[in-house]
Amino acid sequence: MASFELPPIHDNPDGGWGPSTQNLPDRFKFKDIPYAPYSKSDKLGRFADWNDLTGDSRQAATSNLPASQGAGGRSGGRRRDGPQAFGSGTANAFAYFHVEDEASFSLVDNKAAGPRRGGASSFSRGRGSARGGAGSARGGWQRGRGAFVPRGGMQRGGRRGWRDWEKNSRTRESSVAISPQWQMLEEVEFHRLAKLRLDVEEPEDLDTFGRLYPYDKVYDRITTKTEKPLQLVDRIKYNTTTSDDPVIQQLASKDVATVYTTDVILSVLMCAPRSVYPWDIVIVREGNKLFLDKRDGGPFDTVTVNENATDPPQDPSTAANPNNPAEKVAQPEVPSINSATSLSLEATYINQNFGFQSVIETPPPPAIDLAKPNPFYGPDETEPLASCGYRYRVFDLGVTEDEDIKICVRTEVDAYVPGQGNPQAGHGLVTIRALNEFDSRSQGAGGAPDWRSKLDSQRGAVVATEMKNNSCKLAKWAVQSVLAGAELLKIGYVSRANPRDNTRHVILSTASMRPTDFAAQLNVSLSNGWGIVRTVTDLCMKMPEGKYVLVKDPNRPVIRLYAVPITEFTGEDEEDAEAFEGEEHESAN
Description:
Elements: H1 50-53, H2 56-62, E1 74-75, E2 78-79, H3 99-103, H4 133-139, E3 141-143, E4 148-150, H5 164-167, E5 183-189, H6 190-193, E6 204-212, E7 228-229, H7 246-253, E8 259-262, H8 263-270, E9 280-286, E10 289-293, E11 318-320, E12 328-330, H9 340-357, E13 368-369, E14 388-396, E15 406-413, E16 415-416, E17 429-437, H10 451-454, H11 459-469, H12 471-484, E18 488-498, E19 501-513, H13 515-521, H14 526-541, E20 546-552, E21 558-564, H15 574-588
Parallel strand pairs: 8-10, 8-15, 17-18
Antiparallel strand pairs: 1-2, 3-4, 5-21, 6-13, 6-14, 7-19, 9-10, 9-20, 11-12, 14-15, 16-17, 18-19, 20-21
Helix pairs in contact: 8-12, 8-14, 9-15, 12-13
Region (Disordered): 1-23, 37-86, 111-162, 302-332
Region (RNA gate): 299-313
Subunit structure: Component of the eukaryotic translation initiation factor 3 (eIF-3) complex.
């Protein structure tokens, strides 16, 4: 007969529940973990409460409290009566943290499936979700295309939730093709640029060129009820790069400065932390001089639209060319007049023609000739020149008296205001720009209100929206006006005559402001801009003679400095510039 023996009993001399820890082997992995406190009154509740998941139970879980506790002893809006469970407020090793699970969790709808039997719904009727904000509080939820969309949360002019999954995957192409032979020298993040400061004194005027026409004050009195059509005015206006400017070449031979550039290029550099779209600046160091240039047909020749909007205009998506996988081709499905490229060409056309149209070419009052004629207008030219004045000015970037670092800038003004003084001495000078409205209901409109119904009655709302959606563009305009020493900045509001037609436009209004006040309103710091310019100057002056390219990353707030061959960009195909001019001409017609 088999014998029976009782198993050994390990008594706990310290008292309490469970075996004694003194008799556990060292390899036992739960040796130093205490038993979870419990009580016989604990009950198993709902293991998944979708109503409380977004409310108190989530807060309770993160603070190691059970779902029955909640904030203030409430859960789902109902008070739980009864004694508190023993040990429920004790932090222990058995608490479950679901941080990793929540990282991959996407909330589709936090609306309750319906009221429980015998109980009220956890959502108050008429208030909506606590997480829905003011939008859902006004009307709860409605079903959109493929997603639940809060009624009040939809941006005016866009369908929130429509193909949101695709927006993060869209990437912009660089403004210039980065060659593998280029050597990256420096990389600077925008948050570092935003901390730079340099105070610069008033500039020295070297010379003036061109002819200025008086500004037509009739455009200051235009309203949405007395709109004027935008006309196509055939005039010539030059945007020559720095190295091709004959005046700058003469000034460089006299060593009047260390750095030479134009106000268009300089404003992009000074407002770099606001930029979203890619850009590039070609930098040439010859001896002890720096020349900041632009490429023909590059981003400096066009005007952006809603660059800083939450959902800016998009170009058609690109795909790999089956014949050449390295080449990207546009998908043929979405040719739109509201794409980013089409809107940029349209805005450029509007800016030029609004500036040409808003001046008086037939005296009185007469046109004013500056000290010297236009330096870019050749003897063979027959087309009339646009109203434009060039002022060559020198700014001192030296930090101490011993430093001799100056920058020579070619600045532009577009007209003068009669009766404000002598324009040749810099009095009454005006720069003219234009904002454009395309379709307030289109993707990329940035929630802009309809100008025809809001511009006269709620101009502040229109201006605030434009300052948000076009922060970088407006900042560059303000900086260009300050650099040129203009006393006024005129901004026209130009809209399409029909939202579906990008060839006919009307002028709805014109705003006038002082550039320094406008820069302060935009929170543009000129000292920060000069700090960026000085930093880039010091960076390039440390390099040997040669050619460099400063490139803004197309998808990150970063700028990079590359060393490129000296022959780079000199043999660029002229077909690119001709193709750009052809597209601009087609957009104008």
